[in-house]
Amino acid sequence: MPKAVRVHNHGGPEVLVYEDVDVVSPAAGHVRVRHTAIGVNFLDTYFRSGLYPAPNGLPLVAGNEAAGVVEEVGDGVDWLRPGDRVAYAGPIGSYCEARVMPAATLVKVPEGVADEQAAAMMLKGMTAEYLLNRTFKVKPGDTILYHAAAGGVGLLVGQWAKHIGATVIGTAGGPEKAALAKAHGFDHVIDYNSQDFVEEVKAITGGKKCDVVYDSVGKDTFPASLDCLRPLGLFVSFGQSSGPIPPFNMGILSQKGSLFATRPTLFTYAARREDLESMAANLFDMVARGIVKVEVNQRYALKDAAQAHTDLENRKTTGTTILLP
User: 10 Å Cβ neighbour count for 288?
Assistant: First the structure.
């Protein structure tokens, strides 16, 4: 029987259980996919811990992205066939050897993009795509601040934003992570362990501050992130690795310069098929042309998913992590 990593009770990495699962033949509009590589994201820990509710309750198969090969096609699916290489970011359930899923959530992986790359970049890469092209359309000459610059999304954002022509400022913890971020497009990297990022941003920009702040850290960087924005700037909170931002009075946005704030998710931006295809095409193009390089820095066996989560939450990983079935 195929194996999967499931969560029966919310908690720490120890609740991830490697066990047998049934995988049925696909119904109409669905396909069966055999995974070749599975992406690991901080988002996965939110569903494991219960911070984010499981869409269909417990037990749940963890994970939100993967690449693989189509094994079987259900009725009504005429654009995929067995043997096609595919990848996806959502729905939840990727920590497994094989699964049945809606065909509409899949995109074909083009030549020139390896399975490990595809698995490692779907969620993170399409997050970078919507952040830079849709939530705030970054233009040449813009100045952006990105927290956790050495993380999986951060390393992609740095390269992509630099290609666009922006001034790219990042924060990271320690000299090794700062050096990694600088090697991936960041013009300036602030070590939040030893520097005040608000003061550093003011110094770097000559007091003008940033057009947009992208923040996946949450509690530890708020409200200081707002002090890095120019008047009418945009605060983009798209994660909470340090914990959720506490409730705040909206008046703080007016006090700090008539600021805008948003809490986007990839799954909203990619809900329409045409948007999913457009986002994936943009991402694959950047990778195929070598503008954005996707580097897998950590690999674990699927059965060792708990160790992968432990290392991720203890900030022992950089860039991209994958599981191998």
Answer: 14
